[in-house]
From TrEMBL:
One of its GO terms (molecular function) is ATP binding. This is Sensor histidine kinase MtrB. NCBIfam families: MtrAB_MtrB. It comes from Actinopolyspora biskrensis. The keyword Cell membrane applies. SUPFAM superfamilies: ATPase domain of HSP90 chaperone/DNA topoisomerase II/histidine kinase (SSF55874), HAMP domain-like (SSF158472), Homodimeric domain of signal transducing histidine kinase (SSF47384). Keywords: ATP-binding, Cell membrane, Kinase, Membrane, Nucleotide-binding, Phosphoprotein, Transferase, Transmembrane, Transmembrane helix, Two-component regulatory system. Pfam families: HAMP (PF00672), HATPase_c (PF02518), HisKA (PF00512). GO terms for cellular component: plasma membrane. It catalyses: ATP + protein L-histidine = ADP + protein N-phospho-L-histidine. It comes from the Bacteria. Its EC number is 2.7.13.3.
Length: 589
């Protein structure tokens, strides 16, 4: 019983391996089939050509076979009617069907037929060799006895004998066994008269020569068809390659252009349609290169303008700040209206200074001169410090800040100033949009990365707005009352700071159900690539309670999104370098 079970298990494992191998090979072929237009054209041409060659071969074989059989039949009938039957009837004049030795008489008649010089010459020149048969179908025999006959009467089909018995001339093709081989025969039957009553004569013409000829014809058609298919495949491959090669060259050139190599061009050979395609492609590449160069120059001018304006505003801003501080220090001596004006002036100057600092930071990021001052950093401590700095503002707004970070130290190598700025911007943004609901701050650690999520349960994000939260100066509701000020550049700068570390910043939100921002950073900035996050984003199907983000996170997929919680269709958007180049700064939803 155990041996049978082990054999069954081995058989099942073999079947599984074979099926896996077949499935793998099928997927490989399917992948090549989808990617290669040349393969599809060649295979389709061969398939259609095979069908055409098969039909043409069958038609030719049928026509040749019918033609040969008709020629053989006409020659055999003409020989029987003009040569064999007259000689046979002369031989049968001496045959008495009623005698006891009628079988011997029939054999003698056949011998006289085959030995006749005129018949032999006609047989060699017209229809070839034959086997004659004579039989007396009208002879009265006892039960169980056969009719008197001479020759291989057993090779004559029974239905043909019945037909000839009614005094009719008939032909039929039949297969008989000769020397343990199947031989195809053309059987011709005809009545043959004697002095007393008619007999039945049959002539069996072998079709061996015709069969050999048909074998040669079939082999010739088969070999010719295969050679034709091979030539068609080679010709199709050559012609298709001439058409596909420029397309592949255009694809490779387009890839190099997309990679930033704007000097790549296609070779122009000849004056045909392919050359026209290459020439048009090169003209398009020249136009794109010129436009990209103009955009780069414009971007440089814009960044230089932003940097110059930001620096030039420093001096007058400092002067205005000094004057405003003097006015603010003496506000108690002013009337009520002037006192309030002095306070508003100082508040707006604080905002102006913050905006100016963000503009200078963005100009450095755009210029590519921003660098990281990495050091050993305790992330939970940074999170707690950032939350504590914003706790008074949150209490003023009636927002509860709930922090779930470990007490033990979790160290990464990063720029402490930039990481703290990211966390502070995320928490401040959540407080402004929490609508008095709690804000949850959670921390997660993976093997090579750490993550911080900031979750609010306020206004949330409309469909499509998650793609805009990292855009510079973007606001979902410009008239919204804010508690932390803000310049509209915080989240843009935060996304760039995350990118500089080799991580990312992504967002999720639903209308009326809040939003969640997730920061994911590598433990060693610049030395490893982050592919997944240890914390999930909320699910679009069901929004959990405020305590949901404080629970243990589920497993995440290789893409960095939770297999159960991250649903990009629900507004989950990861900040990218392409989008961050358009928006570096604090977000205003």
């Amino acid at each position: 019983m155990s041996d049978r079970t082990s054999r069954g298990g081995s058989l099942r494992s073999l079947v599984v391996r074979v099926s896996e191998n077949v499935r793998r090979r099928w997927h490989w072929f399917e992948s090549i089939w989808r990617r290669s237009m040349q393969l599809r054209v060649v295979v389709s041409t061969l398939a259609l050509s095979s069908a055409v060659v098969f039909v043409l071969g069958m038609v030719l074989q049928t026509q040749i076979t019918n033609r040969m059989l008709e020629t053989k039949k006409d020659a055999a009938v003409r020989q029987v009617e003009q040569s064999l039957l007259p000689v046979l009837e002369r031989q049968l004049t001496a045959v008495d069907p009623n005698s006891e030795d009628v079988d011997e008489q029939l054999k003698g008649a056949l011998n006289g037929l085959t030995t006749s010089p005129s018949v032999q010459n006609d047989a060699e020149s017209v229809a070839g060799t034959y086997d004659p048969v004579l039989v007396d179908e009208y002879a009265v025999t006892q039960e169980g006895e056969s009719s008197p006959s001479a020759g291989p009467i057993g090779d004559v089909p029974r239905d043909l004998r019945e037909y000839v018995k009614r005094d009719r001339f008939a032909t039929q093709i039949s297969t008989v066994s000769r020397n343990h081989e199947q031989v195809t025969m053309l059987v011709i039957g005809s009545p043959a008269g004697t002095s007393t009553r008619p007999l039945q004569s049959y002539f069996l013409f072998p079709l061996s020569a015709e069969n050999r000829t048909m074998g040669v014809v079939q082999s010739t058609l088969l070999v010719g068809g295969l050679v034709l298919l091979v030539l068609l495949g080679a010709i199709t491959n050559l012609v298709t390659r001439q058409v596909v090669r420029p397309v592949r060259q255009a694809a490779r050139t387009a890839e190099r252009l997309a990679a930033g190599n704007l000097d790549e061009r296609m070779r122009v050979i000849g004056e045909d349609d392919v050359a026209l395609l290459a020439d048009s492609f090169n003209e398009m590449a020249d136009s794109l290169a010129q436009q990209i160069q103009q955009l780069e120059e414009f971007g440089q001018l814009q960044r230089r303008f932003t940097s110059d304006v930001s620096h030039e505003l420093r001096t007058p801003l400092t002067t205005v700040r000094m004057a405003a501080d003097v006015l603010h220090a003496s506000r108690d001596e002013f009337p009520a209206g002037l006192e309030r004006s002095a306070e508003l002036l100082v508040d707006e100057l604080d905002r102006f200074e913050s905006l100016l600092g963000d503009l200078l930071e963005i100009s450095r990021l755009d210029a590519g001169v921003a660098d990281l001052s990495t050091e050993s950093l305790d992330v939970p401590e940074v999170v707690r410090r950032s939350v504590d700095a914003l706790r008074p503002i949150a209490e003023t707004s009636g927002v509860e800040l709930r922090v779930d970070v470990p007490d033990e130290e979790v160290t990464i190598f990063a720029d402490a100033r930039r990481v703290e700025r990211i966390v502070r911007n995320l928490v401040a943004n959540a407080v402004d949009h929490a609508e008095g609901q709690p804000v949850d701050v959670a921390f997660g650690e993976g093997e090579n990365e750490v993550a911080v999520t900031v979750r609010d349960y306020g206004v949330g994000l409309q469909p499509g707005e998650a793609e805009l939260v990292f855009t510079r100066f973007w606001r979902a509701d410009p008239s919204r009352d804010r508690q932390t000020g803000g310049t509209g550049l915080g989240l843009s700068i935060a996304s760039e700071d995350a990118r500089l570390h080799g991580g990312w910043l992504d967002a999720w939100g639903e209308p009326g159900r809040g939003s969640c921002f997730r920061l994911t950073l590598p433990k060693y900035s610049g030395e490893q690539e982050v592919t997944e996050s240890p914390l999930p984003l909320p699910s679009a199907r069901s929004i959990a309670a405020p305590e949901a983000l404080l629970a243990a996170p589920p497993e995440t997929s290789e893409s960095g999104y939770s297999e159960t919680g991250d649903d990009p269709s629900a507004g989950t958007v990861r900040s990218s370098p392409e989008r961050s180049e358009d928006g570096d700064g604090e977000e205003e939803r």
